[in-house]
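Technical note accompanying the year-one report. For the benefit of new consortium partners, we illustrate the data format agreed upon in the data management plan: each record pairs a sequence with a structure-token string. No post-processing was applied to the example shown here.
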Amino acid sequence: MYIPSSYQSFSPMTLSKIRSATASSQTVYSKDVGAVNIKSSKEIPNVESNLELYHDIREVVIDVQSFFIFGKATTVLPTFTIHLTPLTYLPKVDEPRRDWVASVAVPAFMAHREDSAVRRFVTIGTGSGLDAIAALDIFDLESLAITDLHPVVVQTAASNIKAATAGCPSLTKAVESLVAHSGDLLTPLKDHEGQALHSGQASSTYAAERYEQIPAIANDSLLALHWLALVQAKTLLAPGGAVLSSMGGRVPLAAMLEMARSAGYVPQVLTYTWKIQSEPEEVIGGYNKNQEDGTRPFYFYLAEVLEREFAGITPLEGGRVAAWIEQQLAPYRLDAVVAYEAHKTGIIIGHTVAVVRSVISDVQGPA
């Protein structure tokens, strides 16, 4: 299961190897929305039939070799067209360094593949479906599932997945097994215990208020949705299964690891890298407001500093020495208030990203 960083304050996640399931799925967003309960790709409605309702759906051409900046595509089509609805979290096709799938998910999946045979995959908050497409390319999947908050986003993502894999016989079985659901976090999978999970990015801004008892470390670090997804994932993970939580390093690594432990997992930093801040006005501005309201400080960096400090370090290598890199970066960090002021002057701001791999505490070894 994979959880992207839109779950910070809203977050993402991925699960792999889930109990005997006929399909795998990704889930991580949202609030209670009407149920879309699609059992296979053949049952996914044709999004084009709804274009009168979503007239501003746009097309984007994906060149995989240039977009997946840390890896080369081997199985999906080298070039394909995706559709994006007004509710879809927009991929940063022209600036992969700003994009979560291109700069974070792809290297994390490649790192996870080194010691894990992933057969079932779920994505939570898939958005455009590019995270699922990356998973199909990197893992040898037997089944796949995607989730998002809005039915039309899920339908469109499913169509994008089919477009990216058309005429790819090695992917036929996994794509035909596709399960697509809309709903809140892992709730869409509550009747599917034993399925695999992974998430991308999507309509996180529409998440409903939640009343679960969240540990202070998760609340204070704006990692509550990551914590909730980890807790809910326990009934879905098979022995040896793992959750990959992709988190922007605006809080210390120690806080991320403590959050995962508080949910009953044994976590490790799988990959550590950096990206340019997407939607800087909204995101940095949001952290700025939280900090001004009295929360803990949240940290950013000048993009040029991150580029220099991470030069020559792959995401997997970064994961192995993440604590050392974090220490090296400490003199350069900007709290949210300072970062927001810098952004307003036109300075490009970035942040670190950790993908934390978590296994249930009574399970030994990697997923």
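Partners are asked to follow this layout when depositing records. The longest helix spans residues 151-165.
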